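Example S7 (structure tokens).
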């Protein structure tokens, strides 16, 4: 199958896009080109494909980039050493004096990078609840160059209307970046809805096996892709060939894994919603989610991410420390189920007043529901909740 075969449907692209038989041996799997440099045939004449140095070009990385471009309906993919490196490169297109409007409930590390690294370089950030398109509109300034959102957000599972925000950003000559980590490209493709950048911590669903830290961006515009390639080459946050290979391998089952994550996430959300020990369940696939209609219109499935409010830290401990199938850990999106207490773990770096204002209290528990057998998962939760 050729890289250009963009008319195939998602699962076929997940398996084939970007992966061509290796030209020398016909190896069906793109090899791990574990090399830092390439021998040049003549002075100043690198081989075709600008293979002169590993930071600039690597064939394993290029296969991964073609794959994410196809899965996100983009024209180019750009791979980075981590999700934060990917987002940093997007913001580094801006200059001192430029302004970014960001959803307030992003990944904790995103807030830390914006507030403690990029703001020192003269880029300004304003945080808003991006569920409210008017709030985003009021935060726009003449120097706003980028609107950055996550949808669903981590861990409050709030949604942003991607199409409305893309229109708003473009009306102000700004670009829209969507952190699509929580949804995965199987469930949501922001570029199709008008976003300019879609990015992933591929550490999560895209790789899906909890064995790689990585970041991916997809765009539809050649000039934006050139900017990102230039920034990556100049700043250096490249992923290694082995990690690119593992991520490509993970992607081959992305559609199969996501179908199961979606099913298991829905089943866990429904079980917990009916449980007397749980005050509130946040899951876009529940009719009780305040943006359920938006979820149905812009997502194809609702993932394995489920947050619940159990009220107090004591109840949080009782719930999280005695589960057998769910491991207490940061991160998400792998085949194995994980449980996390955002206020004390992933979102510890978010200032407490902002955390509380967003509802990230010590009673909030976030599940990353894996793809184990659902009966075992529910039994594990039931046992601990009934104790
Ligand atoms: C984990 C995560 C990131 C950061 O990605 P790394 O790969 O850990 O650098 C960014 N956004 C979201 C939504 C995440 O979950």
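Recovered sequence:
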């Amino acid at each position: 199958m050729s890289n250009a075969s963009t008319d195939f449907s998602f699962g076929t692209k997940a398996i084939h896009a970007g992966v061509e038989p290796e030209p020398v041996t016909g190896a069906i799997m793109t090899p791990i080109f574990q090399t830092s440099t390439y021998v040049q045939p003549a002075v100043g004449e690198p081989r075709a494909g600008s293979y002169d140095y590993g930071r600039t070009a690597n064939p394993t990385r290029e296969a991964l980039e073609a794959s994410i471009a196809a899965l996100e309906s983009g024209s180019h993919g750009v791979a980075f050493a981590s999700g934060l490196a990917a987002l940093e490169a997007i913001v580094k297109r801006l200059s001192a004096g430029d302004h970014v409007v960001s959803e307030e409930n992003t990944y904790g590390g995103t807030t830390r990078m914006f507030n403690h690294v990029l703001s020192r370089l003269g880029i300004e950030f304003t945080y808003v609840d991006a569920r409210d398109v008017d709030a985003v509109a009021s935060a726009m300034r003449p120097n706003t160059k980028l609107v950055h959102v996550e949808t669903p957000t981590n861990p409050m599972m709030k949604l942003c209307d991607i199409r409305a925000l893309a229109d708003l950003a473009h009306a102000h000559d700004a670009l829209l970046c969507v952190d699509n980590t929580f949804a995965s490209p199987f469930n949501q493709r922001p570029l199709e809805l008008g976003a300019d950048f879609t990015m992933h911590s591929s550490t999560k669903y895209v790789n899906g096996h909890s064995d790689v830290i990585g970041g991916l961006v997809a765009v539809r515009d050649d000039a934006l892709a050139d900017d990102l390639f230039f920034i990556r080459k100049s700043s250096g946050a490249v992923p290694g060939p082995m990690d690119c290979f593992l991520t490509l391998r993970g992607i081959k089952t992305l559609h199969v894994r996501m179908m199961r994550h979606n099913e298991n996430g829905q089943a866990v959300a429904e079980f917990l919603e009916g449980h007397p020990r749980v005050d509130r369940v946040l899951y876009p696939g529940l009719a009780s989610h305040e943006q359920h209609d938006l979820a149905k219109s812009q997502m194809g499935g609702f993932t394995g991410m489920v947050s619940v409010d159990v009220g107090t830290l004591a109840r949080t401990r009782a719930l999280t420390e005695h589960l057998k199938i769910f491991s207490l850990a940061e991160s998400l999106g792998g085949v194995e189920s994980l449980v996390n207490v955002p206020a004390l773990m992933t979102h510890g770096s978010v200032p407490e007043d902002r955390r509380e204002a967003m509802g990230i209290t010590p009673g909030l528990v976030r599940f990353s529901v894996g793809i184990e057998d659902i009966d075992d998962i529910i039994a594990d939760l039931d046992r601990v909740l009934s104790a």
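Notes on this example. The chain has 14 helices and twelve strands.
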